[in-house]
Amino acid sequence: MKVTKADIVISAVGPAQYPDTGLPEIALAGRSNVGKSSFINKMIHRKGLARTSSKPGKTQTLNFYIIQELFYFVDVPGYGYAKVSKTERAKWGKMLETYFTERETLKAAISVVDLRHAPSREDVQMYEFLKYYNIPVIVVATKADKIPRSKWNKHVKQVKDGLDFDPNDEFVMFSSETGEGEKQAWQIIEKYIGYEG
Ligand SMILES: Nc1nc2c(ncn2[C@@H]2O[C@H](COP(=O)(O)OP(=O)(O)O)[C@@H](O)[C@H]2O)c(=O)[nH]1
Ligand SMILES: [Mg+2]
Fold first, then answer.
1. Is residue 1, in this structure, part of any structural domain at all?
2. CB 52 near ligand 1, within 6 Å
3. Cβ of 41 below 6 Å from ligand 1
4. Which CATH number does the domain housing residue 186 bear?
5. For the segment 86-101, what is each residue's pLDDT rounded down to a tens digit?
6. Which ligand is nearest to the CA of 59?
7. pLDDT for the residue 14
8. Which residue's CA is the closest to the ligand 1 atom numbered 13?
9. How many folded domains does the chain comprise?
10. Can you give the residue ranges of the EngB-type G domain (predicted)?
11. How confident is the model at residue 47 (pLDDT cuts 50, 70, 90)?
């Protein structure tokens, strides 16, 4: 998809604010700072539309970006940020659970992980949670530019083994720096939103 139009529609604190257009949604989940916002920006070729975090963990809202008037990227607040209170964390958990379990327009979740490291406990929990609710998952292993190509296979295996990756899900090596994986990611997203060009 060639994106010429993209805008933030709303930073929603709850379901009452979610868009009611019925357009398909692709949600991004992953820990703070893993590269969710950078992924969105790279995919739509807009440097600063999705805010890249200066204050990790601060965005406790679901940010809806409308793309080409066809679908939404939903940037979900990241997990794994230590400096949030128990109450905040519980609120965040409830918001995610409600969104992922009840949102009928959600077509797939992109689980963003860091190619450099073995998945964290929270990465694994998120993946299992999505699987449990039968949400199709696209695992995007980002920051591939930080690993030499000769070691990619080893790191892919580390990520897949750590997640107990289901071969029916999609897996994309990605870099917001180099654009690695962008084409493949678009092909997969287009399939899930039913876009035929
Ligand atoms: N080298 C490299 N840095 C990245 C990549 N993706 C994100 N980053 C950097 O990682 C930091 C966090 O990215 P951000 O998109 O804000 O993460 P978010 O919290 O998941 O939305 C920023 O400094 C980005 O520039 C990537 O593919 N390669
Ligand atoms: Mg972000």
1. no
2. yes
3. no
4. 3.40.50.300
5. 888 888 888 889 999 9
6. 2
7. 87
8. 35
9. 1
10. 22-195
11. confident
Q: What b-and-e string marks burial along 12-29, b requiring 16 or more CB atoms within 10 Å of the CB?
A: beeeeebeeeebbbbbbb
Could you list the residue range(s) of the whole structural domain that residue 67 is in? 6-193
Does the residue 46 lie in any domain?
A: yes
Pocket test residue of 60, 76, 176 for ligand 1, highest count of atoms within 8 A of CB: 176
Residue 120 has pLDDT above 90, yes or no: yes
Cβ proximity of 26 and 130 under 8 Å = no
Q: Name the residue at shortest CA distance from atom 26 of ligand 1.
A: 143
Q: How far apart are the first and last CA of the chain?
A: 7
Q: 24 in a domain, yes or no? A: yes
* CB under 5 Å of ion ligand 2: residues: 36-37, 53
pLDDT at 55 over 70: no
Instruction: Quote the tokens at residue 94.
Output: 């409830």
Tokens 């990611």 identify what position?
185
Q: Is residue 95 in some structural domain? A: yes
Q: What pLDDT digit, counting tens, does each position of 129-170 carry?
A: 999 999 999 999 999 999 999 999 999 999 999 999 999 999
